[in-house]
Amino acid sequence: MDWVETTGKSLEEATKRALQILGVGASDADVEVLEEPKPGLFGRVKGEARVRARVRPNIPRPKRAGRQGGEGRKRSERSERPAKSEQSDKPRAPRNEARPPRAAQPKTSNKPSKEDTMAEGITLAEQAEIAKTFLTGLLEAMELTAEVSVREIDAETVELAINANPASELGILVGPRGTTLQALQEVTRTVVQAKSPGRTDRILVDVAQYRERRIAALARFGQQIAVEVVETGEERALEPMSPADRKAIHDGLTGVEGIVTRSEGEEPRRFVVIAPA
Which fold has domain 212-276? Predict the structure, then answer.
């Protein structure tokens, strides 16, 4: 990837901007200092810091030696094999000699097993009940007083909402930027899948309406960045986000004139780019 240059009031600020544009962490980038701010009178700083950075290139692994030699040995072995005409002539068995009967192969049944029948028959409501039982037991083990409610969003999606009064007690289930909540949702899905391997619908878990508030906050943030992109005419790369947060940004900017959005990078550092239309 080409080098990008950024400026800031300090080296840290300039470096942070460069990493945000590249969409990688400090360990995955090469950063060079082009200019440092100069100290002035009374502790003031003159000028700006300027750095350039790029994504650290991957160094290919050296090819394993001896592979070609192995192929050469195989070829030489093939060449040393005697031709059909040079092979020893062995008496052939007469064609009319009776051949041994073939072993009877067991017949496979096309009927579904009892386990498959049970898995296919589990309903969305039953999956929700399995998830609710798991979450209720988890709350009791953590000594948290909260209620778990079930809401069917559509024919293949169900949401389990955990609420308490006060809701601040449930912050431990959300975590920074919802990372703990995302893990809780994956564990809940795994529990449901273990009891319904043939069919598992979409299971969503929310705590204290965090997802709703998160989606609204991301939509407002995306609109602020979109205004800056329209005014400056320069695209902006946001920080790496989860698939759910990226979807919130894309959905929040749907229909906004003058900008387009796209996702770039690889998981888990995939990010959204807001660019002029």
Answer: Ribosomal Protein S8; Chain: A, domain 1 (3.30.1370)
Residue 153 to residue 203: CA distance in whole angstroms: 10
The whole-angstrom separation of Cα 216 and Cα 209 is 11
pLDDT at residue 114 in the model: 44
Quick one: fold of 115-208? GMP Synthetase; Chain A, domain 3 (3.30.300)
Write a three-state SS string for the chain: CCCEEEEECCHHHHHHHHHHHHCCCHHHEEEEEEECCEECHHHCEECCEEEEEEECCCCCCCCCCCHHHHHHHHHHHHHHCCCCCCCCCCCCCCCCCCCCCCCCCCCCCCCCCHHHHHHHHCCHHHHHHHHHHHHHHHHHHCCCCCEEEEEEEECCEEEEEEECCCHHHHHHHCCHHHHHHHHHHHHHHHHHHHHCCCCCCEEEEEECCHHHHHHHHHHHHHHHHHHHHHHHCCCEECCCCCHHHHHHHHHHCCCCCCEEEEEECCCCCCEEEEEEC
User: pTM above 0.85?
Assistant: no
- Which region among 3-12, 76-85, 171-180, 186-195 has the lowest average model confidence (pLDDT)? 76-85
**Whether the predicted pLDDT of 50 surpasses 50:** yes
**What pLDDT does 212 receive?**
87
User: For the chain, what are the domain ranges?
Assistant: 4-55, 115-208, 212-276
Do residues 6 and 50 touch, judged by C-beta distance below 8 A? yes
pLDDT band with cut points at 50, 70 and 90 for residue 192: very high
